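User: Show me sequence and structure for the first protein, then do the same for the second.

Assistant: Starting with the first protein.
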Amino acid sequence: MTPQDIEQLFTCSDDSYLFARWERPIVPIVFGVDDATLSTVKGACEAIVTLAGHKMAETDTEMGANLMVFFFRQWEELLQVPDLDKLVPDLAPLVARLAEADANQYRAFRFEQSGAIRAAFVFLRMDDALSEQPAEDIALSQMAQSILSWSDRAFTTRSPLARTPEGTIVLHPEIGDVIRAAYDPVMPAAATDPSHALRLAARLGRGN
């Protein structure tokens, strides 16, 4: 990937550059699924965290869990989750906006004072399109999109996943390379200057 390609992955709709990664260990929790799907999501999280060279933990000292994944049928169901409005600002207008747009997924982040990711919230409305996808594919895609603060348009025209010649769905190698580079210890946990993309590009393929 060129530096320009990488820059676009973290350039938001308002043309601002925003990059952030996790500093604290990731503690996932999943709502609205059976035990099999729960294991699938946590397995995907572990795979992406291992790829990044980051860590998971059993609990977060402040929040208990800091990566919350919600599966549901209607956006309005989120308004019934106790205290979720305290974790996700302006939840009610957000739900109304997503319902009106007929969206089937949304990710929200909270950040540390340093700019690093503090917590992530993954919302998945299981409409017909999502319901047709294997749970493994959904889990891998969502965990890949939660390990960094990608642009809101990073994956509108491309998927973070790819299909092997044998037909297996895997994380796209280019996206995996960016994740590994982003978690290189010499790289900052957060950045707002597009020159950061040049540093990421320089680290691609180094086997971080």
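Switching to the second protein now.
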Amino acid sequence: MRLCFASNNKHKLEEIRSVVGGKIDLISLADIKCYEELPETRNTLEGNSLQKAEYVLDHFHVPCFADDTGLEVEALNGAPGVYSARYAGEHRNSDDNIALLLQNLRNDTNRKAQFRTVITLVGLEKEPVYFEGVIRGEIITEKRGTSGFGYDPVFVPEGHTRTFAEMSMDEKNQLSHRAIAVRKLAKYLKSRTA
């Protein structure tokens, strides 16, 4: 089975390859010569991941899956959510996003939050197939750690004392929202190739 992951992030690609195993020929956007920015104009994670996957299927005619991830903060009614990457503006700067998040939570004692990833697979079934991964935790008051990216320095997953940015990539990948969604995708793909 040949399947495109709508990403050129080598680390994400390797992570997913290691989970899905050798029965699936997993290719990247570069492998199909797709170098344009994929559209992300919907107002939900499901909508954005579907839009990206369908774009690849429609333009390159290869079954594809895409993901979208958001940080959902309880005290902010689920914000930044689908706008996580551009929370502080279209320039998409993690430090600015974190600064705005901490400013918006400065007087709030409710620090509960969750990371949510949605993966959408198109081209194998008549309808899109969705896989969701959620990890709950809380937002701390200042950044800690240097690993990871995005909001990792201020997010402590439930049952842990360190932020994602204080964990090794392997540790984070064992429990992250993306890893949970990828494992569900891998289980589904394995059942199709069994």
